[in-house]
Amino acid sequence: DPAIDFYKKVIDENVAKVESYKLPENNAEFINGSEATEVKDFGNYDFIIIGAGSAGSVLATRLSENENWKILLLEAGGEENDFSTIPSMWANLQMSEINWGYRTISQKNCCLGMKNRQCLEPRGKAIGGSSTINAIMYVRGNPEDYNEWVRLGNPGWSYEEVLPYFLKSENSQVEGDPGFHGKGGLWNIQYSLPPSELFSNFLQANKELGLEAVDYNGYRQFGASKAQTNIKHGKRQSTGTAFLKYARQRRNLNVITNALVTEIVIDKKNKSAEGVMFIKDNQKFRANANLEVIVSAGAFNSPQLLMLSGIGPKEHLEELGIDLIEDLPVGQNLLEHPMFSGLAFRTNFTVTAESPLSSSVEAVGFMPGPGTVPPIEYIFLPQTGTPSAFDMFNFNQELENSYLAKINSSTDFNIFVVLLHQKSKGQIRLKSKNPTDFPEIDLNLFEEQEDVDTFIDGINFVIKLTETQAFRDVNATLIDIPICQEYEKYSRDFWECAIRHMSMTLYHPCGTTAMGPNGTTAVVDNQLRVHGIEKLRVVDAGVMPSTVSGHLNAPTVMIAEKISDVIKATYN
Ligand SMILES: Cc1cc2nc3c(=O)[nH]c(=O)nc-3n(C[C@H](O)[C@H](O)[C@H](O)COP(=O)(O)OP(=O)(O)OC[C@H]3O[C@@H](n4cnc5c(N)ncnc54)[C@H](O)[C@@H]3O)c2cc1C
After folding, report:
1. Residues marked as binding for FAD?
2. For residue 74, which atom of ligand 1 is closest to its CA?
3. Which run of H or E residues covers position 20?
């Protein structure tokens, strides 16, 4: 098949580049432009949207449906490419210029087994944003997650009220629970590509523990299922491909790539957003917004941009010499989904054919807990037969030699354990007032002991899962974790130590521009308008006031769909 040959060639060429790629330390490509003295006029628009990611692409598509509105969409990255459309290559995309390349600052409670105690925090820097480099899983979470947003003071966000917006985007091929899947929308959803040979063992193992196969986006979340994914004809469906591709043909939408927004221009007297400053092609530009500036730069970059523009914690901005316009808890309340990556299992089964064109994340399960929402998700990654091109865990040399080097991609499978509702909180701060510097990311996972305890329960559950007959049939055996030898092997103290060393995240930052009824604890209101500032909204994953028992891409698209309707209703 010529198509398969073409993509195999793309993989070969790009994997070679991945091996030698070095993550950047700052936004080097914009430094020249940041030193330009002249500011050029980029004209007037009704809406200026910052960031063409999961939220920004959807917003631009929906708002440009109104022909009378002139819209400017500014994106720091470039276009998607052939490599980024191949589902199984998602992890490798981190070692290319379509990842911003962030690392956390050195951590005290977590990431202890990583190089320099830093976890990686990839973010998409391209049309489609993080949906262009993500693992393409479509997982909405639990209805109670959204009802919780209402309980936190945000009317309009109950599951009943947001479900229509999930359905609106979808063209679902999933044979799931009736009433929970949309047809005819722009975004294709289908099950992950052909099942691996151990998929049925995974489902059967769950069954042995009383967990049936479920549609996790349907009536019941507790149980196990094949992953629902954003794939169409074997290719990634980023929001750039699924939504923006059509809207870009509209004359009222101007999409500018390789443009770094450096400031939201705010009239200090009226406390009203007037436009933006950005850098493109080594030049500085200013564009004006008649109706609104909408910040959709993601859960790290949106708070960075707000703080650079004078909106943020008073003390922090003062210490950096930034004039304060509005004192809001920007960058606080950072939530993540910690993920333990130390459960690999050797089997007596060897994959025969390598399958570089499959999607590597195959199936997930949700562990029941005492509450209405699952405390733990577990993700099944079967053997691929192809070793990954780099260490996405960022393990230090000791772990790389003593652990990673032992994993065999033909015989071993992984089950990643995810803590869904952490109590610990991190934060985003500015390194300096220079917009070409990266923001400072402090994850602070596992500050709260309760998080560690729940995580250990999840690990023990997954080990029990692999001790069922279904996994004994392939002789699944936990691969030795060679660290934390000072503790009794597999005791709770041992697991705590392993968790603090070997956990990374599922790359689900949110909460840094949280919605809520007032500016002491929240940044935006329930219509995502920034408290205290006119004509300014934040619309992206950062606005989630609490996280969801799922993955963040689908909820972010839902948020953008819903706010597009709110905006249309406001001005029409
Ligand atoms: C490696 C990885 C795997 C993931 N896997 C999954 C998964 O399988 N399923 C799932 O549901 N979720 C997954 N996620 C998470 C999900 O993709 C994100 O939560 C979601 O895409 C966030 O959308 P957003 O609109 O908030 O931000 P983004 O999609 O990141 O969009 C922000 C956009 O703004 C641009 N931008 C930022 N700053 C500026 C600036 N100053 N000027 C101009 N442009 C700017 C960025 O380049 C980017 O395009 C994953 C994420 C990653 C990184």
Report:
1. 261
2. 43
3. helix 2-20
* Confidence at residue 351, expressed as pLDDT on a 0 to 100 scale: 85
| Residue among 34, 130, 228, 564 to mutate when testing ligand 1 (max atoms within 8 A of CB) | 130
Whole-angstrom distance, CA of residue 31 vs CA of residue 249? 31
pLDDT-derived band at 500, boundaries 50, 70, 90? very high
C-alpha 268/C-alpha 555 separation (Å) is 33
pLDDT at 33: 97
Confirm whether 484 is domain-assigned.
Answer: yes
The CA-atom distances, in angstroms, between 323 and each of 275, 308, 327, 401 are 17, 9, 11, 49
Residue 17: inside a domain: no
Q: Compute the half-sphere exposure of residue 368: CA atoms within 13 Å on the CB side of its CA.
A: 9
ipTM of the complex: 1.00
Residue 22 lies in a domain: no
Q: What is the 3-state secondary structure (H, E, C) of 295-362?
A: ECCHHHHHHHHHHHCCEECHHHHHHHCCCCCEECCCCCCEECCEEECCCEEECCCCCCCCCCCCCCCC
Confirm if 259 and 277 have CB atoms less than 8 A apart: no
Take residue 80 and report the two structure tokens written for it.
Answer: 């998607």
List the CATH number of the domain containing 274: 3.50.50.60
**Quick check: 309 and 551 in contact, CB under 8 A?**
no
Measured torsion, CA atoms of residues 140, 429, 74, 133, in degrees rounded to the nearest 10: -40
Q: How many angstroms does the Cα of residue 370 sit away from the middle of ligand 1?
A: 32
Q: How far is the CA of 45 from the centre of ligand 1 (A)?
A: 25
Residues contacting residue 205 through CB under 8 Å, at least 6 positions apart:
465, 466, 468, 470, 471
Domain encompassing residue 490: 28-571
Q: What is the pLDDT of residue 353?
A: 64
Q: What does each C-alpha distance from 538 to 61, 368, 512 come to in angstroms? A: 17, 34, 11
CA-based nearest residue to 174, from 225, 242, 238:
225
For ligand 1, atom 1: residue with the closest CA: 134
Instruction: Using alpha carbons, list the distances in angstroms from residue 201 to 172, 204, 206, 464.
Output: 26, 5, 9, 14
Query: Which positions are catalytic?
Result: 508, 551
Chain-wide mean pLDDT for the chain? 96
Q: What is the DSSP string of 533-546?
A: -BTEEE-SGGG-SS
- Does residue 505 contact residue 119 with C-beta atoms inside 8 Å? yes
